[in-house]
Amino acid sequence: MKYRNKMIEYVYKYFGETIYDAVKIEISKATFASTQDILDNGPKVVSKYGERYTITVLNLKHTYEDILEVINDANWKIDAKEALRINGNVTHNLNAGSGFWRISNVRVLISREGQEDKFMTPELRKGEYYENMINSVISNNKYTSDDVISLMADMMKEQCFRDGNKRTALIFANTLLLQKNLGYIRVDNKKEYIANILDYYENKITNKQFVEKINNGFYVSAEQLEQNHELATDEEMESLNNAKESLRQDKQEEISKDVEQSNGRGR
To answer: The pTM is what?
Structure first.
């Protein structure tokens, strides 16, 4: 539990970068500046960036906010149903079938830029298959970062959902990593990240080799983040916690005053 709150604060601190990591693997024209603009201004900038880009960013924002709100809840259980919930949030108002397992065949474009179009048609399976694939890895809560990356690869390749598979798999993987304070997957190099995914789709690399490539270029452990001074210090965490407690007390006082005023008006 050493890094739990520090890892969560890391996501808050780099929230714009976190959202950009997920949006840029879907929206080719995405930039960090435009993503941050949408995060800051919401639907007001839809005419500037287009509906799909704006909705994609805001969906990712709400998805991560939702996860960060519940991740410290001792009663919160993460399993295949959480993957469905994440997918529902990620693809909300973008495609039919949000938040459900895929029930029809799909063709997935796997050609590189400048190449002739080439497609992959993943086998259509029953929902129970996807549930078992996910739950078999995480049900005993003894998974490692390698297990998480391996599962992320298979979730993408199987195309468990009608849409949003790469985004959902990345966010679900990072949720699992946060849950056990293991680290984080960052998509600093989109071209290389996508190339690794396509290589796995085409069976040019094995699942184990995919895990190695993600470990070498994209996964950063909590220990590495601390060594790189990207995690808050103990003193900074204490200050943050004090500030949060102060805000909580202020909010509680405001609620109490509102209740008193409401009761006074009712007399």
So the answer is: 0.86
